[in-house]
Amino acid sequence: MLIGVPREQYPGERRTAMIPANVTKLTRAGADVLVESGLGLGAGFSDQEYQEAGARVTQDRNEVLGSADIIARIHKPEIDEVSTLKRGAIHISYLDPFNEHALIDAFKDAGITAISMEMIPRTTRSQKMDALSSQANLAGYVMTLMATQKLPRILPMMMTPAGTLKPANVFIIGAGVAGLQAIATARRLGAKVVAFDTRSVVAEQVQSLGAKFLDIDLGETGQTKDGYAVQLTPEQLELQKQGQAKQIAESDILITTAQLFGRKPPLLVTKDMVAGMKPGSVIVDMAQGNVEGTVPGETVDVNGVTIIGDGNWSNFVPRDASQMYSANIFNLIDEFWQTEEKAFNLDFEDDILQGCVITHGGDIVNETIKNLAR
C-alpha cells in the first residue's frame, strides 16, 4: 500500500503532515511512502532526511495525489484536486465537514474514503490520534507568548531597589485544551491568572494550575459526550457577558478560546468591553470571532488595545506542531494497519472510524454529516 504525502499549499503554512521519524515507522510496517519534494522544509526537514527514512521523493505533485492508496495532509484539498485522486483511495486531513458540503459531495462522487481529523472521537483509546487537541495545546502556549510580546510590561511580580512591579493580570475565557495550556504558560511566566468556562466541571483543573476560576451563575450548562461546551441560550450568553465585564476591564491580557464544534464562534467580548480596557492591554482571539473588532489574520489597534486575530496558531511552532500532527496521523494508520496484508483495515464496526470516516464507496457514511440539512 502506497502512502502519499503532498506538500501543503495553504498560504503561509510551514507544518507538514508527516515527519521523517514516522516515515521510518511506516516503512518498517511494510508501507511504501511517496512524498512531494520540499514537504518538510518549513518545519526544518530536508528531502534527504525523508529519503534516508525510506521515502521516495518526487517533484511531481500529481504523481503523489494520483497514485497513493492513502493521502495524508493537514489542510483540506481544493475541490478540483479531488478528481485527481485514485478512485477508492483513503484521504486523511482536516475537512471541516459541517461547512464544506461541496467538498464532501466531491469526495462522495469520486469514490474516495474521506477521513476528517476533526471528527476523531474524544475517547481514551483515540487520544493518540486527536489532532485537534495536539494542535490546540501548542496554540495555548503560542497565544500567551504572542500576547506578552505586545504587552508593554512584564508578567511576573518583580521587587527591585527602584520599587515593586505588580504581576500582570491575565483573563482566559474557555478552559479547554488551549485555554488550560494558556493558563499554565501565563502562570509559569508569573502572571496572576483568572479563567472562566461555561463548564463548571473544569473549575478544579483551572485551580490545579494555580489560577482562579471566575464563578458566573449561568443556570443549567454542560458539555457534550466528547467534552465540548454546549451552546448557550441568548439569555445565558448575556449573563456571561455581564459577569465577565469587570474582569475584562481589570485585565492586562485577555485570551478567548471559546469555539463551538462545527458552528460559528460566539461573540463574548463587545466593543464596549474592549473600550473599557486599559490602553496597552492585549487581546488574543483564538476563534477569530469571540471579540468584536477582531480582524481575522491580522493584529489591530483599537483605541490603544491590541487585538491579535492571526489564527493557525500552531503554525508559529511548525517543527513541534508537525511532530505532533504526524504522530496523530501515524497512530491512526497504525491502529487499523493489517501487518500481514500491509493494508489499512476499514472496520466500520469500530467507533473511531464510525466517527471520523465521512465518505466511502460513493456514499456519505457518517451519520452526523449525513443528517445535516443540506
**Helix count from the secondary structure assignment:** 13
Class by alpha and beta content: alpha/beta
Q: Tell me what the CATH architecture of the largest domain is.
A: 3-Layer(aba) Sandwich
CATH class of the largest domain: Alpha Beta
Approximate shape? globular
Strand order of the largest sheet: 3-2-1-4-5-6-18-19
Main β-sheet: number of strands, strand sense, barrel status?
8 strands, mixed
Low-confidence stretches are none
How many E strands? Answer: 19
CATH superfamily of the largest domain: NAD(P)-binding Rossmann-like Domain
Distance between the termini: 35 Å
Description:
The protein is α/β, with parallel strands linked by helices and 374 residues long. The protein folds into two domains: 2-119 and 317-363, Rossmann fold; 138-316, Rossmann fold, CATH 3.40.50.720. Helix content is 33%, strand content 18%. The chain has 13 helices and 19 strands. It has helices at residues 20-28, 47-53, 61-67, 79-82, 101-109, 131-150, 177-188, 203-208, 234-250, 271-275, 318-335, 351-356, 367-370; strands at residues 2-5, 32-36, 56-58, 70-72, 90-93, 113-116, 158-160, 163-165, 169-173, 192-196, 212-213, 253-256, 282-285, 299-302, 305-308, 337-338, 343-344, 357-360, 363-364. The strands form four sheets. Strands 3-2-1-4-5-6-18-19 form an eight-stranded mixed sheet, sandwiched between helices. The protein has a seven-stranded mixed sheet with strand order 11-10-9-12-13-15-14, with helices on both faces. The protein has a two-stranded antiparallel ribbon with strand order 7-8. The radius of gyration is 22 Å and the shape is globular. The mean pLDDT is 93.
